[in-house]
Write a structure and sequence with these properties.
Order of helices and strands: EHEHHEEEEEHEHEHEEEEHE
Helix content: 10-25%
Number of strands: 14
Shape: globular
CATH topology: Deoxyribonuclease I, Chain A
Distance between the termini: 7 Å
Length: 245
């Protein structure tokens, strides 16, 4: 099984981002941010009903939003009760999913893109409060663009992980029982760049991540930041892709 998260930047100019990631990486689950409606990327004439396998919602002030795509089934939309997060957070629920743990017949999947409400850290904590109120003991996947450092940096790295960022990492681990796919498969390694800001294109910002239940960790085989030139041309974010046995 493959899970990929990808911020497509301002909707995904050219509408090729979805077809490229599906053709080249074939994810079973795709969590997209800053994307136009999936049917704009996956036209029914070329892609059949693939767009129906995505839950998408628009941010109020822009034409793009976030999405959850599941290849094998059509996910049921999860209502986001906080209006400030509409389009920034999208949830999809799936049943009869092969990765559900024993006793949890469904999985809830959330694509997260942190808005700057007071601060990114406050926004993410509020989003996690909201998600905690929506879950009922099922397996949970949270992935996306957190707009803060999602993995622990090494002492030798030029950037430091802020204390508030470390607290959010700990919350995902301890309160939600989730593991960071990249950190789990690359212990002790410097963090690769997932975001290239226009005014700091070389700075190794690492704000995109995939968090899955701890019970899945034994089957996690790899997690990569897809960073070749072709991906760099499509967006200022690189896709992050985890693969499970």
């Amino acid at each position: 099984m493959k899970i990929t998260t990808y911020n497509m930047r301002r909707g995904g100019a050219g509408r090729t981002h979805w077809s490229r990631i599906l053709a080249d990486h074939d994810p079973d689950v795709l969590l997209a941010q800053e994307t136009y409606a999936p049917q704009e990327h996956l036209s029914p004439s070329k892609h059949g009903d693939l767009h129906q396998h995505a839950v998408w919602a628009k941010v109020a002030t822009v034409p793009w939003g976030s999405a959850v795509y599941v290849k094998s089934v059509i996910p049921r939309p999860i209502t986001i009760p906080v209006s400030d997060f509409a389009g920034w957070v999208v949830g999809g629920e799936v049943t009869d999913f092969a990765w559900s743990k024993s006793g949890a017949p469904k999985v809830q999947i959330f694509s997260v893109h942190a808005p700057k409400i007071a601060s990114y850290q406050k926004a993410i904590n509020s989003i996690l409060d909201m998600i905690r109120g929506l879950t009922d003991g099922c397996d949970l996947v949270i992935a996306g663009d957190f707009n803060l450092t999602v993995s622990e940096r090494q002492a030798t790295e030029p950037l430091e992980t802020l204390r508030d960022d470390r607290a959010i990492q700990a919350r995902l681990r301890d309160e939600f029982g989730l593991v960071n796919c990249w950190q789990t498969t690359h212990p002790g390694e410097p963090l690769p760049q997932t975001l290239r800001w226009e005014n700091a294109p070389e700075t190794p910002y690492h704000c995109d991540g995939i968090f899955v239940p701890k019970s899945w960790a034994c089957r996690l085989r790899s997690c990569k930041v897809l960073s070749d030139g072709a991906w760099a041309d499509l967006s200022d974010h690189n896709p992050v892709a985890a693969e499970f046995e």
